[in-house]
Structures are given as C-alpha cells and as structure tokens.
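Page 47, continued from p. 46.
Same chain as before, 241 aa.
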Amino acid sequence: MPAGDAMAARLGAVSHVLYLIFSEGYAASAGPELIRTDLSSEAIRLTRMLRGLVPDDTEVTGLLALMLLTDARRAARTGPAGEIVPLDQQDRSLWNRPAIAEGVALVSETLPRARIGPYQVQAAIAAVHDEAPTAADTDWPQILALYEVLEHVTPSPVVTLNRAVAVAMVDGPRAGLAVLGTLDADARMTQTHRLEAVRGHLLELAGDTAAARDSYQRAARMTASVPEQRYLTLRAARLPR
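Result:
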C-alpha cells in the first residue's frame, strides 16, 4: 500500500475509476441495453474491498453509499420490454430496501466525521430520493440545497444540469430552464445528449410542447444508447401537436 501523498493521489484516482465503471454499468452510454449489471456489481464489489483497506476514508465510504443507494433502484428502472421507466414513475416496491438501509447508514456514519466531499454529497442526494415513500413526497428543497453544496465542492456542468432539475421542482420549470441556459455555451456539453433531454423535460413541464418535442428529438439523435433513443423518441411522439 502506498503512503502519505502517494496514497491520497492514488486513492482519488482509483475512486474515480470505480465511479466511472459503476456509472457505465448503471446507464450504459451505448448499445442495446440500458443496464450492465456486470459492471455495476463489480464496481460495488471493488469499492467494498477498497473500503476494507481504508475504512476511515469518508469519501470511499461515501462512494460505496452512493453506489448502493443508486443501484437499489435497478429493478424498477426498466419495464417488461426493457423500456426506461423514469424515477418519478418507478414502482418503489421493487427498490432494494436492504441496500437502501445500508447506504443510508453509511451516509449517516460518514457525514459528521470529516470535511464533506463530492461522493458523500451525491450519496446524501440519493438517500433523499430513496427515502421518499412516493415521488410526490420527495424533499426537493433539501435536494436543491445539497446540489448547491455539491456545486461549491466540485463545480461541473453535470452538477449544474442536475441542479437545474431541482430548481425546476422547487421554483418552477422556467427557473430551471434559466439555469440550463447557462450551459449552452459550455463546450463540455456539446458531446452529450443530456442537456437537450433535460431541456425537453423542463419545457414539457412548462407547457411548451413544440419546443419540448424538438429538444427530445435532438437528444435522441445525440445518444448512442438504444434504450435512451427509444425513450426520448417516444417522449417526443407523445406530446400533442
């Protein structure tokens, strides 16, 4: 095992790679399947192993909590034909309650112990979602506050994108769209469909169905994931003309 500064540098790199492996498993960036359980399960296994080596590292604990709390929803994320089921429409009885309980316990253990890091904050956000009995019961003001903390700790366009959704749920879709507008000139967002997908969702909530349809269609053309292409195309097709 490395020591001192070498340990900190390597631990950060390893944690980031594990996070990327899990993310690709949870929502595959390309191909016919939305979920690659082989990747997400292996990421969780390796992160458990890593936590066993550095049990006092609060960010590694936060990363494991984030994975467990996110993966707990896996069974409800797709329908019978493999179609995407958005979070607010998922059957929460299918969520893995033992995984949620373990993830919440890890978050509760790590948050008071040290300076807050990005994995801990993301895990706390996931815990708020998972503990809500229904989508309507989601504590969006708390989620918005956590995204504001996350944006301070580790600013990125993806964090701003997610904060825009929370703003929309708290202050209305037009407020969320205003936050999204700050990302239009960010070159880092030109290679992802997510900006247009979220824009379509917020425009739909705002009642601008024509603009929402255009955004969904643009997003569908930008993603290499077949399930996401189908989901976005269907969202566009369902909107009244």
